[in-house]
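FORM 12-B: Structure-to-Sequence Request
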C-alpha cells in the first residue's frame, strides 16, 4: 500500500491533510489552543497571551480571561499542523458572522475573529470575519431551528439566539432534579434534557454524545461561584455531596 509522505511544499494550504489533521499556511499570527499543534515547518514561535509584546494584539481579539491560560499565539511563517487525539478536524469560515462553539473543541482561529465568553457555560463565541478550526467526535451535521439537541452532541450554533434548557418531566422528578435545574448539567441522557433552539440560524451537531473535554465546563461553573452567597454555597456543597454519593453507588 502506498503511503503519502508530506513535506513543507506538498502539505495543503489551509486545508485538511486527512480527516484528523489540518494544515495552516501561517503568515503572521493565529490563536492556537495549547496541545493542539502536532508539528510545524518554517520559522514559527509560540507566545503565551500574557507576553507583554502581545498586549495590544490580544486585547483586540481575545476577550475571555477564564480561558486565557489555555491559549497561545503562533507567530511567523510556515506550515502549522493541528490535531486533537484522533478526532475529526474541520475548518469553518465566518463572514461578519457570530458563531458559538464548545470551548474544548475549538483548536485555533485567525485574529480577524474576536473571541468572547458565551453566556452558556463551556462555550466560546467568535465574532467577525475569518477562519477557525474545530474538532468533533464524528462528522459535523448542520441543522436549522426549531430543534432540540442532546447537550453532549451539541457542538455549537451560528447566527441564532442562545438555546434554552428543556427538561422532560421524568428528569425534573428525579432525586436530584433540583440540583440539575440549578446547575444545568447532570447525568441525564438526551431523552431527558435537551438544548432548545428557536429562531433563524444554524445548529452544529457532532455524531456522538461523548463530550471531548469537560474541564472547560467545570471552569465556567467554578467562575460563577463568586456570585453565590454563603447559604447558596452551603446548598451547593450539600447537592454535590449527594450527587457524588449517588454516583459511587451506581
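FORM 12-B RESPONSE
SEQUENCE OUT:
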Amino acid at each position: 500500500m502506498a503511503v503519502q509522505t508530506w513535506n513543507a511544499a506538498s502539505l495543503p494550504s489551509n486545508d485538511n491533510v486527512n480527516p484528523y489533521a489540518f494544515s495552516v499556511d501561517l503568515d503572521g499570527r493565529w490563536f492556537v489552543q495549547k496541545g493542539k499543534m502536532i508539528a510545524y515547518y518554517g520559522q514559527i514561535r509560540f507566545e503565551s497571551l500574557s507576553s507583554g509584546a502581545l498586549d495590544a494584539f490580544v486585547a483586540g481579539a481575545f476577550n475571555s480571561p477564564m480561558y486565557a491560560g489555555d491559549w497561545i499565539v503562533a507567530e511567523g511563517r510556515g506550515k502549522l499542523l493541528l490535531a486533537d487525539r484522533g478526532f475529526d478536524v474541520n475548518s469553518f469560515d465566518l463572514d461578519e458572522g457570530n458563531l458559538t462553539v464548545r470551548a474544548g473543541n475549538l483548536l485555533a482561529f485567525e485574529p480577524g475573529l474576536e473571541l468572547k465568553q458565551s453566556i452558556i457555560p463551556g462555550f466560546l463565541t467568535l465574532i467577525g470575519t475569518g477562519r477557525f478550526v474545530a474538532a468533533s467526535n464524528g462528522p459535523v451535521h448542520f441543522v436549522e431551528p426549531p430543534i432540540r439537541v442532546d447537550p453532549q452532541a451539541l457542538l455549537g450554533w451560528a447566527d441564532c439566539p442562545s438555546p434554552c434548557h428543556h427538561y422532560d418531566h421524568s428528569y425534573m422528578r428525579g432525586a436530584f432534579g433540583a440540583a440539575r435545574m440549578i446547575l444545568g448539567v447532570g447525568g441525564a441522557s438526551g431523552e431527558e434534557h435537551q438544548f432548545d433552539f428557536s429562531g433563524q440560524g444554524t445548529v452544529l451537531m457532532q455524531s456522538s454524545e461523548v463530550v471531548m473535554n469537560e474541564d472547560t465546563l467545570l471552569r465556567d461553573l467554578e467562575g460563577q461561584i463568586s456570585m453565590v452567597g454563603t447559604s447558596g454555597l452551603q446548598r451547593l456543597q450539600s447537592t454535590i455531596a449527594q450527587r457524588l454519593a449517588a454516583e459511587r453507588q451506581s
